[in-house]
Amino acid sequence: MLYTGTLGSTTSDDSEILVLNLKTGQSKLVYRGGYNARYLPSGHLVYVRQGSLFGLRFDPSRLESRGLPVRLVDDVAANLTSGGADFAVSRTGTLVYHAGKTNLGIFPMVWIDSSGKTTPLISKPDSYLTPRLSPDGRFLAVAIPTGGGPDLHVWDIQRQTLSPLTFNRHANMHPVWTPDSRHLVFESQWNGSYTLWWARADGASEPRKLLESNTALVTSSMSPDGRRVAYYQVSADTGSDIWTLPLDLSDPENPKPGTPEPFLRTPSTEGNPAFSPDGRWIAYSSDESRRFEIYVRPFPPGPGKWEISRDGGNWARFTRDGKQLFYEAADGHIMVVDYQAKGVSFLAGNPRRWTESPIYINGTFAHYDVAPDGKRIVAFQGPAGGEEKGSVHVTLMLNFFDELKRRMP
Q: pLDDT tens for residues 220-256?
């Protein structure tokens, strides 16, 4: 199986093309510097880099590339953040591709209210990732690619200044604020390991390591008392599961992590947990119904489970007043659900669109966050209406295998 590896970088052009032996479970590097590779019966690989389709001879018996890559087609529409590319090749040798510029994922950050009105937040466009607002509403933490991998930055909303928090380019992402807005917990990737860190939001001290793993883990939420971090982690037997990490904060500058505790481990994929404002509930996403939906369970773990979304959902966010739950629908619309918590029951209303204007979805990370007052969200502003404007040009190229054999015999 061919796949794309992007550890330590969010720029797909810098990715690795790898092949996985399904019998042994061993992976092997095929080529560095491309993404979305496909194997063709002609004995070639085709992949995308810098908006062009490249070809490379490939020996399927040895799982090795041969010779040098050749640029075949220019202007193939692609997305550097998600790693998607708009092309396909039939078994009989017909290439079809969507012509267009590569989406660089560079946008400004904006406020959006329920009427769909946008107001600038960070006017300078960039590849902003995983935006999270501080509980006091004064700061926005974002990850920004810096060459070798993203680093975290903090935007002072009042002063309109952007300050770097990390400088090591170790794929520092997924920031989560402490309730007092003074510290952040985040995840980084370095030399094949995944680490959770505790850092002062003003950057006045070095980050402190909380947890390290050889499998992927992602920070997601902090309990309202600041003494527990919710995250999800990949395991070999049950896929993605939800855990919480207790913290001893007797010295806030030197937190002492406890032993991680499982919250939800099933054969399904669970992720993106979010604590409720009173700490009694966790909303999360799960694909137990064959598509991702939002569910709520009590915390600490106990009986009861409530499905919140109806037609797919991810990235749940509670409002601080304890009355509403936001989530992102598959089509980019922000949905909101009114709820009441009575005793051991979680009573949720019907989901409705919070605004008729969908946010722009770019990549597989969280695309929005809810302001502390619940009246606005922050998101990045893509093309108007969430779609690229202009005509769509789809090109067919017949006898593509003959072209490959001529260019790369």
A: 999 999 999 999 999 888 889 999 999 999 999 999 9
Mean pLDDT of 127-145: 93
d(CA 409, CA 405): 5
Structure tokens at 194: 């995944």
Q: Could you tell me if residue 399 is left (phi over 0), alpha (psi between -120 and 50 degrees) or otherwise beta?
A: left
Please tell me the number of Cα atoms within 13 Å of 104 on its side-chain side. 10
- Which string of DSSP letters, residue by residue, matches 201-268? TT--S--EEEEEESS-EEEEEE-TTSSEEEEEEEETTTEEEEEEEEEE-SSTTS-EE---EEEE--SS
- Residue whose C-alpha is closest to residue 109's, from 92, 90, 122: 122
Taking the C-alpha atoms of residue 354 and residue 347, their distance in angstroms, rounded to an integer, is 19
Are 258 and 205 within 8 A, CB to CB?
no
Distance CA 155, CA 136 (A): 13
Q: Which residue has the tokens 């001529």?
A: 406
Nearest to 357 by CA among 337, 377, 373, 340: 377
d(CA 203, CA 194): 21
Measure the N-to-C terminal CA separation of the chain; round to a whole number of Å.
Answer: 24
Rg of the Cα atoms in the chain = 23
C-alpha distances in Å from residue 392, one per residue of 11, 40, 99, 101, 107: 25, 26, 8, 11, 22
Cis peptide before 300 (omega within 30 of 0): yes
Mean pLDDT of 180-201: 92
Tokens 């005509």 correspond to 391
* Residue range 195-202: mean pLDDT, rounded: 96
354 within 8 A of 326, measured Cβ to Cβ: yes
pTM: 0.81
For the record, the structure tokens of 191 come out as 């030399």
Place of tokens 């001879």: 57
* Integer Cα distance of 189 and 170 in angstroms: 5
Count CB-CB contacts under 10 A for residue 88: 11
- pLDDT tens-place string over residues 23-50: 888 899 999 889 999 999 999 999 999 8
**3-class SS at 339?**
strand
**Cα–Cα distance between 139 and 119 in angstroms, integer?**
16
Look up residue 260 and give its two tokens.
Answer: 């991680």
- What average pLDDT does the structure give for the chain? 91
